[in-house]
Structure formats: C-alpha cells, structure tokens
Amino acid sequence: LSRMRIALDGPAAAxxxxxxxxxxxxxxxxxxxxGAMYRTLTLKALKNNKNLExxxxxxxxxxxxxxxxxxxxxxxxxxxxxxxxxxxxxxTEVTNNVxxxxxxAAVRKEMVRRQQLLVKNGxxxxxxxxxxxxxxxxxxxxxxxxxxxxxxxxRRYEENLSKGIHSDLEILQREIEERxxxxxxxxxxxxxxxxxxxxxxxxxxxxxxVVNSIIALIKERG
Length: 222
Ligand code: C5P
Description:
By secondary structure, the protein is α/β, with parallel strands linked by helices. It has helices spanning 16-27, 34-47, 55-63, 92-95, 98-101, 105-118, 131-135, 149-162, 169-185, 207-221, and strands at residues 5-9, 30-33, 67-72, 75-80, 83-84, 124-128, 141-146, 198-201. Belongs to the cytidylate kinase family. Type 1 subfamily.
C-alpha cells in the first residue's frame, strides 16, 4: 500500500487537487500537482514575452527552467528558478494561457520525463490530465473525476469567494469549458479517461464522499 501510485485525472476544476491533497495527507503519500508545472512554465513564458504558439521557443525555455514542488502547510508550494510562485501561477492570465502552452508535444515530453522521476519511488497521488494515460500507465489505481461544467464553475466561484475574490459565474463557466475543449482536442496526450480508470462523477458528491470512495478503492487494491 505504501508504495502505491494513484493517478487522478479529469477536466478543469473537477476537485482533483482538493481530493488529492486530502488523500495524500491521510495516506502519508506525496501529492504532486502536474498542472502546477505547466502553469509555472506559462508564467515564465508570459513574463519573458515569449510567443506561446512557438513550440521550439517554449521547449528551450523549459529546458532552462527549474520547477520545484515542495510540500507546504496548505498543500504544495511551487518554486520557479528558486523563487516562490505558489500564488502567481493561479492568476487569470496564467489560467487562460496554460492550455495553449500545454498543447506542444515537445513541452509535454519534457514535463512527462520530469514527472516520471517524481513517481519513481511510489507512495504518490498525482493529479493532471494524462497521468493514467501517459505519465503512469501502470498506476495501481487510476481515477477519472468528472462533474458538470455548471457545478465546476459553481465550485470555483465559491472557492474564489472564500479567498475574497468576487468572480462572474458565467465567465468562469465559459473559461472552464474553453480549457476543457483545448485540453481534450489537442493532438499530444489529450485529456482522456484511461481504459482501466474508474470514472467518478462528483456532480452531486461532497469532498468527504469522494475521498471515502477513493479510499475504499485503494483498500480493495492495496
Ligand atoms: O490542473 P490545472 O487546472 O492546474 O492544470 C492547468 C492546465 O495544465 C490544464 O488546463 C492543462 O492544459 C494543463 N495540464 C496538462 N497536463 C497535465 C496537467 C495539466 O496538459 N498533466
């Protein structure tokens, strides 16, 4: 059980990171948020006025970029070339550009290489879009988390509100749907349920219920 690798995939704002964090805490596993890695590269590219359509430019930028994920009190902390960017990578500008950066096959190849190094020793919960299909194709447990776009927008709206940020629900839903569309239609490792993943529609489930359902699956397999 302690060396298990759990792959958690699904569309934007489906609650993957909330659930992954709690699972990792309860199991004493390491939580790895792969979206944060794509976000960090996007942040650096925006800061350096890179052309986000240019695969070669972004790949060479990534090869010269150090991305570190460290456990923190409130979940994972993220460092870009030694500077903390935990909050900066959640900006609307990064969120609305990250899917474009993530379409490039050569960028993905390097990200997957780095992610595979992080799961080598097991005992991990990794969340993303292609974890079950490409990063850990032989994961001991794969879960594909879904929820309606409306419900996901509502959750993100409330999450923002709890941070004191007031957002427009309709715009949030549109941005989420746009990101899903780009993530699912790209050629290189699109967002897709792995054949052997267990689908969990969380539209009418609360966090506790989702966590408990996944723990039951882990016990079945561990
Ligand atoms: O998980 P999060 O919403 O932070 O991910 C941000 C974006 O990073 C996704 O919309 C997707 O474009 C990209 N991503 C990806 N593959 C992953 C994780 C994230 O393409 N494994």
